[in-house]
Structure formats: structure tokens, C-alpha cells
Design a protein that fits this description.
Helices cover 35% and strands 21% of the residues. By secondary structure, the chain is an alpha/beta fold. It has one domain: Inosine-uridine Nucleoside N-ribohydrolase, Chain A. The strands form two sheets. It has a nine-stranded mixed beta sheet with strand order 3-2-1-4-5-6-11-9-10, with helices on both faces. The chain is globular and about 50 Å long. The two termini are 22 Å apart.
Length: 302
């Protein structure tokens, strides 16, 4: 397909990142030109290895991978174990591809400047994005940022704290302040469009890539989805590939302190000066069609 959209995936590769990588790499209207790796679901070294593992498994090892941040901009390293001991539920294999030798910021800068316009789908903490625009502020306006984070179901007493923000709040604040018109594909989308555990086998029947994901899904733990795999990051890919799957609204995004003292990202849909786009609902049937159709389309040329 001509006029594919140039894409950079910024990931902290756990299990839903793996699904997002696979979805993005096999969309006819997307051209994944770089995958940048940030600490998050696991440490940075495992994120790099996991990302290359996914790419080699789906025969897309030609896509460049770069090493990004290993700690937040405040020099803290906080991780969760919601994706197993190494981020892929313990799955590992020997890899043969090497990441780029240049810095993550330089790699992103080079991709952004070789295209007329680029789309960055951020699936992890925002440390890589913050570091990039600090070094290359002249690139702001040359790309659209799709942020897989935030929630429409916040309250002032006990707000939902999204991991990608909580792990490096300062980077998210910086990015929100500097980058205009961010699209927030909120965590609610992945909570609605998840793969139930009794449907894991359906993914496996689609293709070898589906078998790979179905093997990983049982290790994915989510605070909201108790019996299945939440595909937060794949929803970010779906928004770019097929935006009609979602309903959106314009809002003013800002940080707020809850009554319990916790800081969270809030969306005000009544503010007369909105600064972001927010997904407010997802058509689950259309998303599942997108997901399974993609898996069925994946055929490797040996």
C-alpha cells in the first residue's frame, strides 16, 4: 500500500506490548520504522531482548531497535511484575539481532526527520519521549504522539493511577507541557477490549503469531481484568490503523492531587481550551475483528 503512515513504537515490552508490536508490524497502512525500548514492565535489558524476541519470532527482525532509558528522569527505577519474571511470562529464546549503537534520542530524531510526518505510539513510561524532545526540541510539530495511558474513570478520593504515568510522573508532565494535541488512548479501552482466557485458543488457531501470543497471555496480570489479557497497547495501534473503532472527545489534561494525596492525570471535557484528544469508548466487536483479522493475515515467507 502506498502512503503508509511512518510509525515509531516506544515500548517497555511486556505481553500487551508484544501484541501491539505484532499488530503494528502487520498493518497494511502502517510502516514501523523504529522500536525504542524503555524500562517499565521489566528492566531495560530485558525490554530490549523481549522486543527482539518478538520481532525475530514474527520474522520482522529488519525493524531497528534502540536502547532507551533504564531509569526515570529523577533517577528512580520502579518496575512491576505483571508480565512474569522477565516481562514475557518467563519465555525466552536465543536472539541474533543487535540493537542500534546510537542513542535512543538520536534514533528517534533521525526517523522523524526522514519523514514528512511521523506517528509515535508510546506504550510505556514517557522517559524516552521526554529525553528526546529535551535534546531535539526543534522536532516538536513533526510528529503526533499517541499515548497509551490515563483513565476516564478517575475520582478525587481514590483515583486510578496508571502505571505508565506513575512510574515516571515528571516525564509525563514534561511531555504534556511541551507536545501539543496528544492523543490519549486510555487504559479503559484495554479493559473493555480484552481477550478472555477461554478465547486464548482462538488466537492460537489464527496463525503462528497467534500461537505465540496465546502462550504468553496466561502470564499477563491486570488490576481490572481478572480473567483474560488486557490489550492496552494494541488499542493504541488500533487507534492509528483504524480510528473509527473508537469514540473520542477533546479535553483539558492536567495533573491533580486527590484527597488521599496521590497525584493523577485528569481530563476535563468541559474546559473551553482543550489540549488533548481522549478515547472515551471502543467498539469491541470492531476491535476483535481488527485483532483476529490481523493474526489470520500473518504468513511467514521462509
Amino acid at each position: 500500500m502506498k502512503n503508509k503512515l511512518p510509525v515509531i513504537l516506544d515500548v517497555d515490552t511486556g505481553i500487551d506490548d508484544a501484541a501491539a508490536i505484532i499488530m503494528a508490524c502487520y498493518q497494511k497502512n502502517l510502516d514501523v520504522q523504529l522500536i525504542s525500548c524503555c524500562f517499565g514492565n521489566t528492566d531495560q535489558s530485558h525490554v530490549v531482548k523481549n522486543t527482539i524476541t518478538v520481532l525475530e519470532t514474527i520474522h520482522k527482525e529488519n525493524i531497528p531497535v534502540c536502547k532507551g532509558a533504564s531509569i526515570s528522569i529523577t533517577n528512580e527505577s520502579n518496575m512491576i511484575r505483571a508480565h512474569g519474571i522477565n516481562g514475557l511470562g518467563g519465555y525466552q529464546k536465543e536472539i541474533h539481532t543487535k540493537p542500534l549503537s546510537i542513542s535512543c534520542s538520536q534514533a528517534i530524531h533521525e526517523v522523524v526527520n526522514k519523514n514528512e510526518f511521523t506517528y509515535i505510539i508510546a506504550c510505556g513510561p514517557y522517559t524516552n519521549i521526554a529525553n528526546y524532545i529535551k535534546k531535539y526540541p526543534e522536532d516538536i510539530g513533526k510528529f503526533k504522539l499517541i499515548a497509551v495511558t490515563g483513565s476516564n474513570f478517575t475520582d478525587d478520593i481514590d483515583p486510578y493511577l496508571n502505571f505508565n504515568i506513575m512510574i515516571d510522573t515528571d516525564s509525563m508532565k514534561y511531555v504534556l507541557d511541551k507536545i501539543p494535541n496528544i492523543v490519549f488512548c486510555t487504559s479503559d479501552m484495554g479493559h473493555k477490549a480484552y481477550i478472555p482466557s477461554d478465547k486464548f485458543i482462538k488466537s492460537a488457531k489464527c496463525s503462528e503469531a497467534g500461537k505465540f501470543l496465546s502462550m504468553l497471555y496466561p502470564s499477563h496480570k491486570d488490576r481490572t481484568v481478572k480473567d483474560g489479557a488486557a490489550l492496552h497497547d494494541a488499542c493504541g495501534v488500533a487507534w492509528l490503523a483504524q480510528p473509527k473503532i473508537f469514540k473520542i472527545s477533546y479535553a483539558k489534561a492536567y495533573f491533580k492531587i486527590a484527597k488521599n494525596g496521590k497525584e493523577y492525570l485528569n481530563f476535563d471535557y468541559n474546559d473551553p481550551n482543550p489540549n488533548v484528544v481522549v478515547t472515551t469508548n471502543i467498539n469491541k466487536n470492531k476491535f476483535y475483528k481488527f485483532y483476529y483479522k490481523t493474526l489470520k493475515s500473518i504468513k511467514y515467507n521462509n
